[in-house]
Amino acid sequence: APPAVKADIWEPLRDCTCESFAYVGYTDTTTIEGRSDSEAWEHTVDALSTFGIEGSSLNILMRALCVVLQLGNLTFDFDPAVPDHHEDQCVISSTEELEKLSDLMGISEEDIEAAMTTRVNTIRGETVTFTLGSSSARDGCKALAKEIYSCIFDVLVQKINEFTSAEANYDIPRINGDLAHHHHFGIISLLDIFGFERFDVNRFEQLCINYANERLQQRYVLDNFKAVQQEYEAEGIEIFDFAVVDNSD
User: Fold this and answer.
1) Residue 118, Cβ density class (10 Å: 0-12 exposed, 13-18 middle, ≥19 buried)
2) Are 109 and 102 spatial neighbours (Cβ–Cβ below 8 Å)?
């Protein structure tokens, strides 16, 4: 995005690059699928506007993503105020990144640090606060970033569903004078199957994941394509080459 647009989302974002965030890091890739970053940004903004995410809604969405990225910049270390570097007490050592996160979230630095470095348990009606070591605090920080990212994804799915819902966006037809039920609308179903993955080191669980994905795709092909192939051919309806989606080999 242009610097002015980034500043409108969050002022410290103005001069940021990929290297400014640990979750992104350096990359020498300048284009993806033939699009530069600036072209991809324009395409993304245009696509989001289709589903009503524009203006302040777009800024809120982008600020939420900035929170995820900024969480990745926090570092944790032993609390210097505790003698002998007690392993179960830590602080956020990246004070500048914490200050940015505080500004972005509108939450005080003290509250963020307390939430990240302690755990509160209620046992038999009594509230007990436990301090966390740097490893546990770091894991909790990553878990929070993942949860926020998951919520962002859920919001996008909800928006897309709202804007593609026939019942919500079109007049409900009448059949014999009565309003039609939702099942009279046409339905387009999308199946998203995790792709086959191969890593430098492939363990047994990866084999199970890949096998399950391949079986799911094969089941889908059988149910949705092969079952009607002969019918289409008999009626002279042109159909695409099944070899494209058939993974039986």
Assistant:
1) middle
2) yes
For the four alpha carbons of 98, 104, 109 and 114, in that order, the dihedral sign comes to negative
DSSP string, 34-50: TEEHHHHHHHHHHHHHH
Question: Phi-psi bin for 177: left (phi > 0), alpha (psi -120 to 50), beta?
Answer: left
CA-based diameter of the chain, in Å? 83
3-state DSSP assignment of residue 1: coil
Q: For the segment 180-233, what is each residue's pLDDT rounded down to a tens digit?
A: 555 566 667 777 766 667 788 888 988 888 888 888 888 877 777 777 777 788
CA-CA distance, 125 to 111, in Å (whole number)? Answer: 23
Burial 211-235 (b: 16+ CB within 10 A, else e): eebeeebeeebeeebeeeeeeeeee
Structural contact between residues 161 and 190, judged by C-beta atoms closer than 8 angstroms: no
Query: What pTM did the predictor assign?
Result: 0.73
| Helix/strand/coil for 78 | strand
Q: Which of 161, 166, 160 is CA-nearest to residue 187?
A: 166
147-185 pLDDT, tens digit each? 999 999 999 999 998 888 777 777 666 656 565 555 566
What is the token pair recorded at 56? 């302040």
